[in-house]
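User: Can you write out an input/output pair for a complex, sequences first and structure second?

Assistant: Here is one pair. Inputs:
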Amino acid sequence: MLDYTVMIVAGMLGMALLLNLWRLIIGPHIVDRIVALDTMYINSIALILLYGIYNQTPLYFEAALLIAMLGFVSSVAFGKYLLRGDIIE
Amino acid sequence: MSFLVELSISVLLLLGGLFVLVGSIGLIRLQDFYTRLHAPTKATTLGLGGVLVASIVYMYDLQGYVSINELLITLFLVITAPVTAHILAKVAMHHRVKLIQHTRNQALVETARMQLPADLEETPTQTNSNEPS
């Protein structure tokens, strides 16, 4: 049962990633694109955790934590750049 | 693995995937940037929380002890998602992103833009005017 569930949830997360990619492409303002990119980071964390469940290994948690930190730092850096014209003043 | 553990993991995974999908549909379907910001920061974070709780239960069943990594990821995401949303909303107000028509308190956007420290010339004059010379 768990294999089918993992496959269904992976399909849902893939659809969510495609919708985020659509918003990333058509986003009217650049802030929309940053939000779409941040959501794609979060969805990829969920996909990595799902892959860890599928392979029955706790090996991928460090990768998920690393991607979470990268997503936060990159979103804040984009925001600071758009707000002030510079990242670290 | 017993049936009850497998059932609980499946339900948690399905709930998490559903919330992540709802967040992305909201990111597509909502009209405004400010309403669009709600979908990823709330629904997607909750969905990821569901997947993380399912992963905690599964790894406890697999290893026999609770590992701290998932809790660390949950804590990090719960802390950082509002910070990102706040900074991006500030950026959107600063760049005058278009609002929908019936947004309440639209005049406060100008007040929030005045409070940005972009105008550095006004700060010394204000401190000089406060000094009793």
